[in-house]
Amino acid sequence: MSSMQTNSRSGSPTSFIDAANQSITVNGIPFAYRDTGPATGVPLVLFNHWGAVLDNFDPAIIDGLAQTRRVITTDYRGIGNSGGTAPLTVGEMADDAIRLIRALGLKTVDVLGFSLGGFVAQDIALKAPDLVRRLILTGTGPAGGIGIDKVGTVSWPLILKGLLTLRDPKFYLFFTSSANGRRSASQYLRRLKARKNNRDKGPTPRAFMRQLKAITAWGRQPRQALGRLRTPTLVVNGDNDIMVPSVNSFELARLIPDAQLVIYEDAGHGGIFQHHTDFVAKAQAFLDA
C-alpha cells in the first residue's frame, strides 16, 4: 500500500483509505461518495463492479490516479451507504450517474468503469456525450456481449468455493489460477482491507441479486450503437477474464471508433488490479493525451 499523499477538497493531505464518506441527495435519494486528489483539471468519476461498495475500489489505483487529478468514487443506488433500491437495469444506473455528476456541479468528466461499471460508463457516454470527455472501460463488454448473461452461472460455484475455503470469491473470480494470479489476488484483497475506520457497509443480498438481474438483462439486450461514440476510449482487460469473457474487450475496441486496447497476459477480470502500477501509468497517459 503506497503512502502517497494527495489533496482532498479541503486541501489537507489524504489517501483513499482515509477519505471522508460524503453524501449528496439526488432526486430525494442520498448517494454515498468519496472525493480525493487535487481540484484541478477534469475530474475522473469511477463506477465499480457487481456488489461493490466504496471499499471495493482499489486504493492503489485511486491513489495513483489522484496524484494528478480529482477522483470521485460512488455507490450505486441501493448499495452501501447510498439510499433507495438497486435498479434492475444498467440504463437506470447510468441515469442515476448522470444526475449525480450534474448534482456535483461537474460540467465535463472523464469516466472509468470496471465490469458492471463499464456497462454503466458506456451508457453514460451514449446518453450524455457532452458530459464525458474520455472513457476507460475495464473488465467489461458491450450490451449483448458474449457470455455476459452467464455471469451468475460462472460466479455461483466460485462464490461457494470462496465460502468453503474462507476466501473472498474475488480471489477466484478476478484472477488467474497461476502462481502470479494467486499472488496478485492476495495483494489486492489485502489492499481492500487497508481502511480501518468508517468503512462502507456491504451490499444486502437483495441488492446483490437485483444487480445480477441488471447484468443479465444487459447481456441479453441488443447491441448499442457504439459506432456513434466520439469519446476517446481506452479498453483494458486480462487475457483470461472468466466473468466478462475477454473476447468482449476486443469487441469493444472494434466497435468504438479509434479505441485503444490493452490486454494483460496471465491476468483475469481484475487485470487492472494485478497490474495496477502499469494501469495507472497507461490511464494517466491516456487521460492527459
TrEMBL record:
This protein's UniProt keywords: Hydrolase
Pfam families linked to this entry: Abhydrolase_1
The keyword Oxidoreductase is annotated on this UniProt entry: no
Organism, scientific name: Pseudomonas glycinae
Keyword Iron: no
GO molecular function: hydrolase activity
The protein's name in its UniProt record: Alpha/beta hydrolase
Domain AB hydrolase-1: 43-275
InterPro entries xref list: AB_hydrolase, AB_hydrolase_1, AB_hydrolase_fold
PANTHER family for the chain: AB HYDROLASE-1 DOMAIN-CONTAINING PROTEIN, HYDROLASE, ALPHA/BETA FOLD FAMILY PROTEIN
